[in-house]
Design goal:
Elements lengths: L2 H15 L20 H15 L14 H54 L2 H23 L1
Helix pairs in contact: 1-2, 1-3
C-alpha cells in the first residue's frame, strides 16, 4: 500500500471521527471499533472522492470492514482511475495522430494535383496541344475537301 494513500484515508477518517490520526490503526474495525454505520462510511467515501477528484463506487464498500480494507479499496480505485485516464490519453493521442496523417495525405494529394495542373498548363504543353489540334483540324479539312 502506498503511504500517501494510507495517510489520505487515515486523515479523512480522523477528520470525520473527530480524533487524531495517530489514534487510528489499520487493524481497527470501522463498525465495531469506531461505530461507523454504512451511511457514515459513504460520507467518508465522499470526502475521499473530493480529496482525489475521482468518483469512487459506493457499492464496493460492502466488503470493507477494517481501516486496512478501506485503504486497499481506495488504492485500487485510484489505480484503476489513473489507468483509465492513461488509456483515454493514449486514445486521444492516436486519434489526433490519425487526423494529422489524414490531413497530411489530403495535403499531399492536393499538392500532387496542383503539380499535375501546372505541368499540363505549362507553355510548352499548351503549344504542343495547339499544334495537335491544328493538325487534327487540317486533317479533317483535307478529308472534307476530297
Amino acid at each position: 500500500m502506498s503511504i500517501r494513500d494510507t495517510e489520505s484515508v487515515v486523515q479523512t477518517l480522523a477528520q470525520h471521527l473527530g480524533v487524531g490520526a495517530s489514534e487510528i490503526a489499520l487493524t481497527h474495525d470501522l463498525y465495531r471499533d469506531w461505530g461507523l454505520t454504512p451511511l457514515s462510511l459513504v460520507v467518508v467515501l465522499l470526502d475521499l472522492e473530493r480529496s482525489v477528484a475521482i468518483e469512487l463506487p459506493p457499492e464496493e464498500l460492502v466488503s470493507v470492514r477494517t481501516v486496512a480494507d478501506l485503504v486497499a479499496r481506495f488504492r485500487a480505485w485510484v489505480h484503476a482511475s489513473e489507468a483509465s485516464h492513461l488509456r483515454s490519453v493514449r486514445r486521444a493521442r492516436r486519434a489526433r495522430a490519425s487526423r494529422k496523417a489524414l490531413s497530411e495525405r489530403r495535403l499531399r494529394r492536393e499538392l500532387h494535383h496542383l503539380r499535375w495542373l501546372e505541368r499540363e498548363s505549362s507553355p510548352s504543353n499548351v503549344r504542343s496541344l495547339d499544334a495537335n489540334r491544328m493538325r487534327q483540324q487540317g486533317a479533317a479539312r483535307r478529308v472534307a475537301s476530297r
